Amino acid sequence: MLKIKKQHIEEIKRQAKEGYPYEVCGFLIGKMDYSLNTREVLEVIQVENQNKERANDRFDISPKDYMKVEQYADSKGLQIVGIYHSHPDHPDRPSQTDLQFALEDLSYIIVSVQNGEPVSYKSWYLENNKFVQEEVDES
Fold first, then answer.
1. Could you report the per-residue pLDDT of 45-97, keeping only the tens digit for each?
2. What is the distance, to the nearest Å, from the Cα of residue 113 to the centroid of all Cα atoms in its chain?
3. Residue 65 in contact with residue 48, Cβ under 8 Å?
4. Cα separations (Å) of 17 from 13, 65, 87, 93, 125?
5. For the chain, what is the total number of helices (H) and then of strands (E)?
6. Cα dihedral sign, 14-18-23-26
7. Element spanning 64, H or E
């Protein structure tokens, strides 16, 4: 389960709208409870989509950005609990490319943006090399 405040979801949607027609991406920072398989988001941090050639349907996060965010989270006693990105004019479900680069133990929020407006989002996690839709507690 992913626990995330409504304000964080609204922030991700705002970024997705502003970034349209390109994919935006960022990190979910918080705490992970392995015994309950729960991730709690306390901050969202947008990073630049490094894929300039196919930004309308792909995103890449630089290793430098990943390291910077990981160090920031560590400094606050937190961790990276997930990654978010938008799907311009596509559904909020993972693509084959998303599956290729996904890591276990993380949540993946995907926001569907249709004609410039965020219309829906879902969260996913990887299990046995397949994405499974995750329950979201939006408080």
1. 999 999 999 999 999 999 999 999 999 999 999 999 999 999 999 999 999 99
2. 14
3. yes
4. 6, 22, 11, 18, 24
5. 3, 8
6. negative
7. helix 63-75
